[in-house]
Amino acid sequence: MRPTAARQGSLREHNLGLVLRTVLESDASPSRADVAAATGLTKATVSALVDRLVAGGLLAELAPAPALRAGRPAVPLAAPVGTVAALGAEVNVDYLGVRVLDLSGAVLHERLVHGDYRSSDPATVLARLAGLVDEAAAATSGTRLAGTALALPGLVDRGVGPLRLAPNLGWRDVDVVTLLAASSDVLAAHPPALANEADLAARAEAAARREDPTFVYVSGEVGIGAAMVLDGRILAGRHGWAGELGHTLVADGRPLEAVAGQDAMLRAAGMEPVAGIDALAAAADDGDEAALRAIAAAGELLGHALANVVNLLDISDVVLGGSYARLASHLREPVLAALGAHVLAAPWAPPTVDVARAASVPALDGAALTVLAGVIDDPSGWLAPEVASP
Amino acid sequence: MRPTAARQGSLREHNLGLVLRTVLESDASPSRADVAAATGLTKATVSALVDRLVAGGLLAELAPAPALRAGRPAVPLAAPVGTVAALGAEVNVDYLGVRVLDLSGAVLHERLVHGDYRSSDPATVLARLAGLVDEAAAATSGTRLAGTALALPGLVDRGVGPLRLAPNLGWRDVDVVTLLAASSDVLAAHPPALANEADLAARAEAAARREDPTFVYVSGEVGIGAAMVLDGRILAGRHGWAGELGHTLVADGRPLEAVAGQDAMLRAAGMEPVAGIDALAAAADDGDEAALRAIAAAGELLGHALANVVNLLDISDVVLGGSYARLASHLREPVLAALGAHVLAAPWAPPTVDVARAASVPALDGAALTVLAGVIDDPSGWLAPEVASP
DNA sequence: CGGGATTAGTTGTATGAATGAACTTAAGGC
DNA sequence: GCCTTAAGTTCATTCATACAACTAATCCCG
What we know:
The structure is a homodimer. In chain A, about 40% of the residues lie in helices and about 20% in strands. Chain A is α/β, with parallel strands linked by helices. In chain A, the strands form four sheets. A five-stranded mixed β-sheet of chain A has the order 5-4-3-6-10.
C-alpha cells in the first residue's frame, strides 16, 4: 500500500510545511497576512502555525519595518540565523569539501582541501574528511545540526550506501557510512545521507533556478555525470544510480566519457591531462586551433548524447556545470547545433544550453539542501522542545 | 505555489480515494474490516467512506460469501459492473480501435478496424474513428461514461493537444480534439485526453505488473516508441513528448528506427516491408538465416540504445511490446548481451528483458485506464447524486 | 440445541485542525 | 483628534477521524 492513510495530524503537518516553505522561498520577508494570502489558509490558521514554528526555532520574527502605508505594520518573517543548520560534504577526484548552511541558505562555514584522490585508499581519505567535518561542527557549535549528507562521484545507493563504484577514485563496494562513523563522533551521531555528486549539484542548481526547475544538468569533471531535474525533483532512479551519461555509447561505440571527458579533450588538444581544464580553456580563449577543435569535437558528441536524452525525456533545457561551465563559450555552439539537428521536438520547443548558476562546488550546497529539505518536509520533527510554562 | 493548502475536505478526499483504490486493486473482494486493516484507518471511518462510495455507485457490495470461519460473515466489496465506464481509443498506422472498460477493468465493448493510414487525411480518419466511438457509446448506453482518451503514434501535447507530429501517419499539427468534436456528440461532450501510444501502452503494462511497476517499455511498431515507468508513474515529460527512443542516434549516426524498426528488419532479411512482422517472425522460427541475422543485428543496436537508457535512468527491467513481443524469443538474447556489456550497474542489478503481459492493443486499455485513474483520484467528483430522502 | 467464542460492522462521544466573523492593535491621513 | 486601513488575535462552529462500547451474525463445542 503505497499511499498512506491521512489522519488529522497529517493535515497540520502538511500545512506546517507549507507555511514554512512559503516563508523560506519568498524573496521578501512576508508577514503572516502575506502567507495567508499566498497559501489560501486563513489568517487565524497561519498565525497558529507560524507561532509554533517561531517557538520551535524554524522561523524568526524580524523587527517591524517602518510602515509605508496605513494600517498596523506587519511583522516580517524570515529564516532564523544560526539556529538550525545542515552539513554537506563531498569527496571528489581533486578535492574534499565541507560546507554548513543554515535554513536561510547562508554559508556558516566552508572548507575545501585540494588533492589528488585517484586510486586512493578509502579509509585514509574518509578519515581526512571526517576531520574536516569535526572542524566544521566545532566552528558552528552554536547551531543545532539537522543532519549531514555526502556527495560521491560514482554509483552510490541513495541514502545509506554502500558506494558501489567510483571509477575515477578507484573505489568499489565501500561502506562509507560505517568508515566515517568510526572517525567522527559528529558523523556517528548524524549518519550522512549519501548521493551521487551530479544529483546533488543538480539540486543546488534547481534551487538557483526556482522559476523554471526542469533541465538536464551535465557535470563535466574527470568523468561525466548528469542529472535530470523535473519540476524541481531530481530523477535519481530506484537505487540512486541514474545519470550515468558518461557511459553512453556514442557514434564510434566508445563511451562518451572517453571522447568528451576532461582528459580526452586535453589529449585531443595535444596537452597533458595534468595540465587541467583551465589550461585548455585559456588556450581556447587565446584562439589556439588545436584546443578549439578539441572542444568543438567534444561538444558535437556531447550534443548527440544530450539529443538522445532530450528525445527520451522531453526536457529541452541543458545546463552545463563543472569544467563544462568553464568551457561554455566554446562548447555551447556545437552542442546547440547537435540538439537542433537531432531533437525531434525542436521546432516546437527549441532546446537551450545555459551555464550553471549555482555556487562553485555546487554538490556541497546540494547535499546541505537535501538535509534542509528533510527539515522543511517534516517540520514538527524538528521543532525545538518548548519550555514548559510555570 | 505548487503545493496547496490542505483543508479538512482534502483529508476526506484523500481517504475516499485510498479506500476506493484499495478495493479496486485488491485481487479478492475485501470486506470493510479488511480495508481498515490494509489502510490503517479505523473500521468506523472506513465504513462511513465505503457507504458513501456505494451510494455513489463507485463500489458495490457483493452477496455475502458462505462463511468459512467463526464470526459474522463479511460483506465483500468490489468494483461495480456497468455503472461507470471509460472509453479508450487509438489511431495507429495499421488500425483504428475503440474499447470501453468499466471500473473493474472488464471490457464492455471493443471494436478494431484494420487499414493502412500512412499518409492519410486526418479529417477523414478521425471522422471514421468518431463513428466507432458513437457506436461504442450506443452499445454501452446503460453505463455512465466517465470520459474518453485517445492514443496517437507521435508527439502529442498531453491532454488537449494538438498533435504535433506523427511521422508514420504523415500528420503534422492536427487539432484532433476539435476535429473529433465536430463528428461525434459523445466526443464533444467528453473531449478526449490525448497521449502518446507508447505511454498509454506502458500504463496498461504497469497495471499488469502491479507488483513491480518500474520498467522501460519498448513498443516496436513501424516506429519505435518507448515509455519509462517509475513506480507505476509514466515519465511523460513536461509536454508529454518523452519516449522518442526511435530517434536515438546509434553507432553509425542513424536513428534507431532506421536500423531496428519493423521495415528496416524486414528489408535486412531480404523481405518486402509489406510482408509484415508475422512473416519475419515465421521465417525466423523456421530457422531462416537471413531473418535470424536481421533480428540479431537489430537486437544488438536496440540493446545499445536501451543500455544508454538504463545507465541514464537506473531502470533495469526492459519490457518488449508491439512487434518486438512477437520477435522476443529471437531478440531477447542479443538485447540482454548488449545490456550486460554496457550497463554500468549490471553487477549489482542485472538487467532483465521480458515480454509484455498486457492485453493486445494495450494502448486502448491504457487510454481507458487513464480516465479511470482520474475517477479514482477524485472520487467525490464522480459520486452519483444521491436521491433526496423524503 | 444452547452458550461461548469470534469476527463484522455500527453507534455515539471525544479530539483536534481549520474556518469565519468579530474584535483588538497599531499605524497613516486629513 | 477622529476616521480609515491593515495586521494579527480570539472564540464559537464545523467536520473528519479516533476510540470505545455496542449489536449482529456466524461457528464451535459440549
